[in-house]
Amino acid sequence: MSRVLVCDDEPHIVRALKVVLREAGFETVTAETGEEALDRAAVRPPDAAILDLVLPDIDGIEVCRRLREWTEMPILVLSAVGDEEEKVRALEAGADDYVVKPFGPRELVARLQAALRRAGGSAADPVLRADGLEVDVAAHVVRVDGGEVHLTPIEFDLLKTLLRHRGRLLTHRALLTEVWGAAYEHDTATLRTHMSNLRRKVDPAGERIRTDPGVGYRFA
């Protein structure tokens, strides 16, 4: 049973999430503050985390950033704020997804399950190599010119997809559908943010991942 850390200072939200997650087969551990969430995650690392953006001490963005210093577990951010700037801030801090309150229980569970699947990988998947990059899909390890690089699950999936189709132009819609699912096929802002983070880590010189403006990306 997957264990999910839920951090929110609104008791009714926490109660609702505990019920929804329990019915979906998840075990939950809760925290009311950012510091408490970080402590609980450190003592017994969960399989995923759901974080509210507005907390009484440090905000969810900072919690996400500090978790990303040592874990690749899927992180979903919850907030009543739905503007694009806040979404980008959360994604840049390492969040895998962003859910706006009020949310549908089925949607939240579906997004959490999708994030866990992306993080899981498959033992049958190969090691992909190209242009100084090595992606061990089963071990979820990426090396750039021999040195190991930390990627979030979303960044890992994007790189894996580009490598499997290297040389081929993948449209924004194709990448969004492959990595996030059909419900995200028009969310190009999310894709741009994650691609920017990925490039910074594996292609700072801009020689591996090419952009066709307004169309998509390809691994050269």
From TrEMBL:
<dbReference type="InterPro" id="IPR039420">
    <property type="entry name" value="WalR-like"/>
</dbReference>
<dbReference type="InterPro" id="IPR011006">
    <property type="entry name" value="CheY-like_superfamily"/>
</dbReference>
<feature type="domain" description="Response regulatory">
    <location>
        <begin position="3"/>
        <end position="116"/>
    </location>
</feature>
<dbReference type="Pfam" id="PF00486">
    <property type="entry name" value="Trans_reg_C"/>
</dbReference>
<feature type="modified residue" description="4-aspartylphosphate">
    <location>
        <position position="52"/>
    </location>
</feature>
<feature type="DNA-binding region" description="OmpR/PhoB-type">
    <location>
        <begin position="125"/>
        <end position="220"/>
    </location>
</feature>
<dbReference type="InterPro" id="IPR001867">
    <property type="entry name" value="OmpR/PhoB-type_DNA-bd"/>
</dbReference>
<dbReference type="InterPro" id="IPR036388">
    <property type="entry name" value="WH-like_DNA-bd_sf"/>
</dbReference>
<protein>
    <submittedName>
        <fullName>Response regulator transcription factor</fullName>
    </submittedName>
</protein>
<feature type="domain" description="OmpR/PhoB-type">
    <location>
        <begin position="125"/>
        <end position="220"/>
    </location>
</feature>
<keyword id="KW-0238">DNA-binding</keyword>
<dbReference type="Pfam" id="PF00072">
    <property type="entry name" value="Response_reg"/>
</dbReference>
<keyword id="KW-0597">Phosphoprotein</keyword>
<dbReference type="InterPro" id="IPR001789">
    <property type="entry name" value="Sig_transdc_resp-reg_receiver"/>
</dbReference>
